[in-house]
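$ ./design --mode recover --in tokens.txt
reading tokens...
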């Protein structure tokens, strides 16, 4: 049986194809699959130009926010930008600090220490900023649920502006301005900006009021990194932000990013969202996971080549350490999970797991078992949890129903975190487990694999890949196109990786011969090597030892005539 539910998309309607103008049938099918119900929308989707960038003044409280910042600039007030310790928060902090400093602002970055302070606004941190002479605090990628903390700000002489993209509570924090596209009263046409995207729109509005709007575009490289790292959908305005940001990174990378690209052996000038997700973002996140995220911030803003090199080397070492710790504590978590019956909600706990590793452990558990997962560091008095989930289960909503047990919580539908008194932990586990069991009762918990279209291998070529690349950048909401080919034979194979978990393949369908690769499918695929197979895959360009070839990246398979299909 195939490992995923296969959802082969419906064929593009004949009238859509006929009216799609210059686009070949394959591109018309891919555009239709991505929700572009009118061919007239296709050109804008492909060009992904400035027309996708909405008016920043449509965001709620934007006039109040820009007016207060402008006043702070004119009177040379001390401004603090209060960010988060993940890649989105780090890039958002860098964007706003650099943007305000370029206007002459006296700006101080503040990113809390994950291990000693925890996520979000903290009263102790606000007191520290007040003592340093700060009079205006602007949050980025945090603050939307910090009602009590924001209320304390004015008592310390701090005016507060909140910019965030997380889901608000029913009550908004009592700040001078709360800029968030997810507010229920927002008129902004696109709700899926990252935290760095919201920070950029604030700058865009401010610069526009000064007649300098074009200048802010030089920060789009940071916007692209934060948007991709935070797994935001690459649709709508995010397509424009990421496409333009990638152009900057590939033509004129800032010093710190250039050093990371060099050390990680990415090909300069060819960075795509995958390179951000799998290479740059983990390194930027490594600082905050194990020590302090300010190191990554300094890497992004440094103008010193020697400092850029030193900081990039440090992050490279921290990322290697992070990988080892993740493997260690993931093994312990898997042992806990497998020691008992697999339940709808997976919960693993440990008293030694670094807080910064919890989310990675939970994510790996969800990837492997396709269940919502929680990894918890159990402390003597206070415990911390990080959650990852699946589309069928909104983990943040479930946690919010237990808010009376928690000290802090927040997140998205499929990623969240919380802290609570350890004495409440058993009760929390019980309530969340009951909620998951109820909501997921009867569900066949396998991931859904959307397939764009069925093709024969003879239809694929370099020209096909070139056509497909018109839809880039790819990512959530606009996934890399996925194809299905039936009755394909494996004529040869070799193993790769530890214990042969990956395979290099020689594939044949009729007279067409192709190379393929199957990651993490080695054990199951070798059992059916002599059978005709239905394969689901992406078409990609492989760069191996300086040689570029086309190959199939196998995502799933099933013996032909035994495919569990969903149509």
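writing sequence...
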């Amino acid at each position: 049986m195939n490992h995923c539910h296969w959802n082969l998309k419906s064929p593009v309607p004949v009238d859509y194809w006929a009216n799609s103008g210059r686009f070949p049938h394959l591109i018309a099918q891919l555009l239709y699959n991505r929700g572009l119900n009118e061919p007239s929308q296709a050109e804008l989707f492909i060009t992904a130009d400035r027309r996708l960038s909405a008016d920043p003044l449509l965001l709620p409280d934007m006039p109040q926010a820009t007016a207060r910042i402008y006043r702070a600039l004119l009177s040379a007030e001390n401004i603090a930008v209060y960010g988060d310790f993940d890649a989105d928060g780090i890039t958002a902090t860098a964007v706003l600090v650099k943007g305000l400093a370029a206007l002459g602002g006296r700006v101080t970055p503040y990113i809390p220490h994950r291990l000693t302070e925890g996520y979000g606004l903290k009263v102790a941190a606000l007191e520290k900023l007040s003592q340093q002479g700060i009079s205006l605090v602007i949050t980025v990628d945090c603050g939307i649920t910090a009602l009590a903390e924001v209320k304390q700000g004015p008592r310390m002489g701090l005016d507060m502006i909140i910019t965030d993209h997380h889901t608000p509570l029913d009550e908004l924090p009592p700040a001078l301005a709360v800029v968030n596209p997810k507010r229920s009263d927002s008129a902004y046409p696109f709700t899926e900006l990252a935290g760095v995207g919201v920070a950029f729109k604030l700058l865009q509005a401010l610069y526009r009021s000064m007649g300098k709007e074009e200048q802010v575009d030089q920060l789009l490289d940071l916007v692209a990194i934060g948007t991709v790292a935070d797994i935001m959908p690459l649709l709508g305005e995010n397509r424009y932000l990421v496409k333009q940001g990638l152009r900057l990174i590939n033509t004129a990378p800032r010093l710190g990013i250039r050093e990371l690209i060099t050390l990680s052996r990415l090909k300069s000038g060819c960075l795509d969202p995958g390179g951000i997700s799998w290479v740059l973002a983990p390194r930027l996140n490594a600082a905050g996971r194990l020590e302090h995220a300010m190191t990554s911030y300094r890497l992004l803003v440094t103008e010193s080549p020697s400092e850029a090199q030193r900081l990039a080397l440090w992050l490279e070492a921290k990322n290697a350490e992070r990988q080892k710790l993740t493997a260690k504590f993931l093994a312990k978590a898997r042992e806990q999970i497998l020691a008992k019956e697999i339940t709808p909600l997976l919960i693993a706990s440990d008293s030694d797991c670094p807080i910064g590793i919890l989310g990675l452990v939970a994510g790996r558990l969800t990837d492997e078992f396709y269940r919502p997962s929680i990894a918890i560091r159990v402390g003597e008095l206070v415990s911390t949890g990080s959650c990852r989930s699946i589309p069928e289960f909104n983990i943040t909503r479930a946690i919010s129903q237990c808010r009376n047990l928690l000290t802090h919580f927040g997140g998205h539908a499929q990623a969240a975190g919380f802290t609570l008194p350890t004495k409440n932990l058993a009760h929390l586990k019980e309530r969340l487990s009951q909620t998951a069991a109820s909501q997921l009762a009867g569900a066949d918990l396998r991931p859904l694999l959307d397939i764009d279209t069925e093709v024969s291998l003879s239809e694929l070529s370099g020209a096909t890949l070139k056509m497909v690349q018109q839809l880039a950048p790819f990512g959530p909401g606009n996934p890399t196109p996925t194809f299905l080919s039936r009755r394909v034979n494996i004529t040869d194979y070799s193993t790769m990786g530890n214990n042969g978990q990956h395979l290099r393949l020689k594939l044949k369908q009729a007279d067409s011969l192709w190379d393929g690769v199957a990651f993490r499918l080695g054990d199951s695929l070798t059992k059916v090597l002599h059978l005709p197979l239905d394969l689901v895959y992406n078409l990609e360009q492989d760069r191996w030892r300086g040689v570029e070839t086309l190959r199939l990246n196998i995502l799933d398979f099933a013996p032909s005539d035994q495919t569990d299909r969903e149509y």
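exit 0
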